Amino acid sequence: ATAHGAAAADYAFPGFDPGRVLPPENAERKVDVAFCGAWGPEYSRRNALLEALRYTPASNGDHNFSRVLCLNALNPEELPPGLAALNRGAVWGKRMSALLAGSRMVINAVADYAKGQPPNLRHMEATGMGALLFTEDHPSLRAFWQEDEVAAFASAEEMLEKIRYYRENDPARQAVAERGQARCLRDFSLAV
């Protein structure tokens, strides 16, 4: 911002709203992988990740692998057919919180102009609700999350490989998700 004439700039730092109703400790998480967000030309990297996800089951022959996409698409008819079939439409507020609380893993990927830089609100929402967050790796990620608190990926292939691993190793998934949630509630709460 300062390079474009702003007198000063502060780092925007989202937080977790402690007013959300957290899921019970042993809540059933029925969705394997969820994504909530926009689909459009300014999300080419994200779109490619979602395209990769639609073709890839957790492991060979695994037909119980559930993927829920809640895409906010200005032109839903432009969604590729496979993604359109997985799309439940945009969700916000309590409906989104319920989806995140009922998901084992949540994918996060920012708009192209952000170049993968964390944090954004989905980091806080997913971890705060106890899901394992899958997020783009970035040099500044470790300023917010430790390696054992989120699942970072550098490519669609690495994301899919980690999804398969955590799908087949639920105790490991749950341990990372719990550490991520503890960090979120401890360090990123908006409670005054």
Description of the structure:
Helices cover 34% and strands 16% of the residues. The chain contains six helices and five strands, in the order βαβααβαββαα. It has a five-stranded parallel sheet, with helices on both faces. The two termini are 29 Å apart. The mean pLDDT is 87.
Look at the helices and sheets and give the structural class: alpha/beta
How many distinct beta strands?
Answer: 5
C-alpha geometry? globular
| Helical run tally | 6
Which value, in Å, is the CA radius of gyration?
A: 16 Å
The SSE string, one letter per element, is EHEHHEHEEHH
Span of the ends, CA to CA: 29 Å
Ranges where pLDDT stays below 50 over 5 or more residues in a row are none
Largest sheet: 5 strands, parallel
The proportion of residues in beta strands is: 15-25%
Average pLDDT for all residues: 87
Provide a quick synopsis of the model.
This protein has 192 residues and is α/β, with parallel strands linked by helices. 34% of the residues lie in helices and 16% in strands. The chain has six helices and five strands, in the order βαβααβαββαα.
Considering the chains and any ligands shown, give keywords for the structure.
5 strands, alpha/beta, 6 helices, globular, 34% helix, 192 residues, five-stranded parallel β-sheet, 16% strand
